[in-house]
Protein 1
Amino acid sequence: MSDPPPKRRLRMTRQRRVILEELKKLKAHPTADEVYEVVRERLPRISLSTVYRDLETLCEWGKVRLLEVGCAKKHFDYDTRDHYHVRCARCGRVENLPVEPFTYLEQAFRDLTDYEVTGHKLELIGICPECKRKEEEEKKSKEEAP
């Protein structure tokens, strides 16, 4: 059996740098399509497939986190520290929760189970302010309709 080919040393290209810069600016955690739309303003010739590939590479390098939230589309997070998220059940928007991780949970579950607990994730689900506002406007317009 032959040895696997040596790993290529990938470099921080201009495209990857721009993707990181734009991702850092965003408050919500965008999908690759949303990153593409923002990055295209600075790099009009960039392709969607390049954005997907570069986001995957940045995740592998630990510069970006791929969020595994309860929706079909992948979301990306510039903040790679442990933290929690809230997801809108209507539009899928994902944002950080402004609380520190509950590290005592891991110890509590170690004490209660035979599992070797190596970490945890927490995602709250709700309705974001924008969707809530839209729902209230729709409800109000229905009530006012003759």
Note: The first strand starts at residue 65 and ends at 67.
Protein 2
Amino acid sequence: MPMIDLYLSESVLDAEDRQVLADRIARLVREAEGYGDSRLAASLSWVYLHPMPDTAITKSGAVPARPLWRIEVASPTGSLAPDAKPALAERLARACLAAEGTPWDPTDARRVWVLYRDVAVGDWVAGTTVAKAEAIRDAVARERAAA
């Protein structure tokens, strides 16, 4: 059940391609969390797109020659295992590079930064409901059992 913020230069992708990438990123995060194709988990996975003017993203005070990407993934503590984060970051980098039309290259992957934020129990509240990773996992398990 991630909340994802995707920051990118507005010239990199058109609005439709940004939506496709947002969906791909949300799917990758849900897979890493173990939720797979759960419809419930998908309904709780939100992506906030932040297309920015090219001049709003700088590197050493100048507009970079190649696009820079920033992805922030926030989820309740325990949703994403610490050892899953490096592999997920690589999959996210692959998705961003593919979306911009760049073949996979570990050097180019350094243009994609992924920041993880584990939100403590009690600090993730939807309306008046405190979100807990174990409760979400239980709900997804019930959904799968009913299918």
Note: The beta strands are 3-9, 46-52, 69-76, 112-119, 125-126, 129-130.
Protein 3
Amino acid sequence: MTNRIFKVNPLTGLLVFVLFAALTWFIISGLWKLLSVIAPFLFLASFLLDKKVPINFFKWLGKQFKVNVIGGVFVTLMCGLAFPFVFAFLFARSLMNYRMGKSKRAAQQDLEGDYIEFEELEDPIELPRLNKK
């Protein structure tokens, strides 16, 4: 006596896997085509928002060659093949750093407050003394 409720044909599982793989392939290839068109603009925008992010990425890429030459070549080739996703990642990181910096500046401004204009008086005002009780 088996406790199976459903009888599933193994071909059904294979068909579901193939459909899922095909759907994933079409989504990733569509994203790659879209991002490859706008990648140069994303890269330029990442430089404009926060120039440290792309510069630090290329420094890291150069450091990979110093640590391990074969690994550095592999990482560079992978970044070259997946450049639309890399540029989108750099843009997202630059945008995040820009917004975080903007909110930090706003918080610092709230903490310090605005300067209040005042004018100095030549003669101090004479106030009567208060009696302490």
Note: The chain has a mean pLDDT of 87.
Protein 4
Amino acid sequence: MLRERYFQYLLHSCMKKKIAIINGPNLNLLGKRETDIYGDLSFEKFFKQLQDKYPKVKLSFHQTNIEGELVDAIQKAGFDQDGIVLNPGGYTHTSVAIGDAIAAVPAKVVEVHISNVHAREDFRKLSHVSAKAAGSIFGLGLKGYELAVEYLLSVKNEK
């Protein structure tokens, strides 16, 4: 009951918020790739579910396998949107430029990873994103995106 009231409050108080979801490399293969780790639902179907759950929030979605395009998308959304849900995929562990792009924009960024990167290979434990993000969500599957959206709806736009 209390959770439902809170959810209704979020929907009512955040009717005009714009949130961008930006996915990095290989996330276009969700539902097909390593389904034991990432599940069998495509991101397009999941995104439709998010839009249905948050009808009064303007959600946008961008996916690219190219690092520079991720930087461009963060820069564009970071000045145009109220918040960003970012899954930089494998670039999390290698891209200083993505971390710098997050630091350069006023929008809050929540880092999301479907798998628990800390329970995987050692090289995945390094993130150039986490220190620049408002927060990070690991290992909760696609539910992490929903939690990130809820967080962005609940906070002011100040970074």
Note: The longest strand covers residues 18-23.
